[in-house]
Design brief:
Length: about 300
């Protein structure tokens, strides 16, 4: 099958198209013909070799974990899905490929009204956002600060937290402030003076902080929490331990991942949840897609389309 592979850690240039061994569904698994695959910041971090401690990666490797596509093979014991079903989810094999394998518990039906690219944008962003919000125990009536709120995970976190009844303050560049207002966040510019701007936007104080950006906001976050690292989590700042902040690098959102993903997909299909797709690329342009991802400032998601844009 066609796939993108890399045989050594390094920059985007280590990625190349290749023919690799076909994958086949084992017990409790499905094989999916990929129609779209999400590109996430974790992909280039793993490719660079920066995440070996958390995510050891045997080489050669195929990047990516989230996909949308059509079931074309089911393993023993699978009754939840059948060949021909349209699905989205998170794979156990690299998603920058013609086919992926997935455990049925990490997959959800794709609603008819949801496009392939939009479906592939959901699994990682929603699972990560929900997991961290659960870890932070964000509840109705509280105030959550999200750093990097206009990216895919940040966008999902804003909307999921707002749906739980929280007030959300979101940091982003001024160009993304109107977008954050549409999602339900109070926008604040990042950079020097952040603490004062957040205090002005949230005079009641900040109950929890979710750092998606990893751009040196943890010192300000601790100050905004009254000098404590309690209820601050980052998925992006390698200096987390220096501030006593929890680095959240877990997988999905637990045993109910598929059920939650199905709910988010249904919401996205009717416009009640937005993780916008900023740009799509052909599978062979995966290196360029990761370059764009690594440069930052992406609103929403980058998506690969194995059949071409």
């Amino acid at each position: 099958m066609e796939a993108i592979v890399y045989e050594e850690f390094g920059g985007p240039d280590v990625l190349r198209p290749a023919r690799v061994e076909d994958v086949h569904a084992g017990p409790g698994q499905i094989r999916v013909a990929v129609r779209a695959a999400g590109v996430n910041p974790i992909d280039y971090k793993i490719r660079n070799g920066w995440m070996e401690a958390a995510f050891p990666t045997p080489l050669p490797a195929t990047p990516g974990s989230e996909f949308a596509g059509v079931v074309d093979e089911t393993g023993d014991g699978v009754t939840e899905f059948a060949v021909g079903d349209e699905v989205l989810g998170r794979s156990t094999t690299g998603a920058y490929a013609e086919y992926v394998l997935a455990d049925v518990g990490s997959v959800a039906p794709k609603p008819e009204g949801l496009g392939w690219a939009e479906a592939a944008a959901l699994p990682v962003a929603t699972a990560t956002a929900a997991r961290v919000l659960d870890e932070l125990t964000v509840a109705a009536g509280e105030t959550l600060l999200v750093h990097g709120a206009s990216g895919a995970v940040g966008s999902a976190a804003v909307q999921i937290a707002a749906a739980r009844g929280a007030t959300v303050i979101g940091t982003a560049s001024p160009a993304n402030h109107d977008y954050l207002r549409v999602l339900g966040a109070v926008p604040v510019a990042y950079g020097e003076g952040l603490v004062d701007r957040v205090r002005e936007a949230a005079p009641q104080g900040v109950d929890a902080v979710f750092d998606v950006a990893g751009r040196g906001a943890l010192a300000d976050s601790v100050e905004l929490r009254g000098g404590t690292a309690d209820r601050i989590a980052t998925i992006a700042d390698p200096d987390a331990a220096h501030y006593g902040v929890a680095f959240s690098a877990g997988g999905g959102s637990g045993p109910d991942e598929g059920r939650r993903l199905a709910e988010y997909a249904e919401a996205a299909a009717v416009g009640a949840l937005r993780v916008p797709v900023e740009q799509t690329f052909a599978l062979g342009d995966a290196a360029r897609a990761q370059e764009v991802s690594e440069a930052g400032h992406v609103r929403g998601k980058l998506v690969l389309l194995p059949g071409g844009p």
